[in-house]
Amino acid sequence: MSEQAASDTSTAPQTIASDDNGATASASASPPAPKPRTLLDAGKQNKIFGVLVAGGSRSLAAAYVGCCPATIRNTALRDPVFAEELKKAESGNEVKFLAAISKAANEGRYWRAAAWALERKYPDKYALKRADTLTVEQVKVAFEQFASVVVEELADLDCRRRVLKRLKRLERSLRSRARQRRLTRAEK
Questions:
Q1: Which of 49, 66, 80, 122 has the highest CB neighbour count under 10 A?
Q2: What is the pTM of this model?
C-alpha cells in the first residue's frame, strides 16, 4: 500500500489508499460522530439531590441515575444553578446529621453521641490516638532533648550552631504542618 492521500473535507468520498496495481479504496471524509454527552435532565438532577440529601455520596448518586461521577462534576462546572443546588443538598444532610447527634447528646443516656462529635470536631483534643502517634508537644520535647545532645556532643561551635539552626527550621516546619492539619480538619 502507498501513503494515504490527503483528505479534503469538501467532497464526501475520498481516496484513502491505493495498492501497487492502482486499485483504490474510498471512504467518507467526515470524522466519526462524537459520542453524545450524557445530559442530566431535571428528573436525574432531582434524583441526585435526593440521594445527597439522604446522606449519600456523589458516586452513589451517579450510580443511581446511571451516569459517571464526572458527569455530575462537569455539569456543576457548566451550570452554576446545579452547582449551588448540589452544595445545598450536600450540606443539608450534614446539618441534619449534626442536629441528630446534638439532640442525642443532650439526652444523658446518649453521651456517646457527644463524645463522637467531639472526637471528630476536635481530634487533637478528644480523638483516640494510635500508640505510634506523637503529639506536637511530644515532638517538641524530643527536639529539645535532641538539641541538648547536639550541644553536649559537638565541640565545634560553628557546626553546633548550624545543626541547631536546621533543627529549629525543622521544628517550625512540623509545627506549621500540624497547624495546617488542624485548620483543615476544623473546616471539614
A1: 49
A2: 0.44
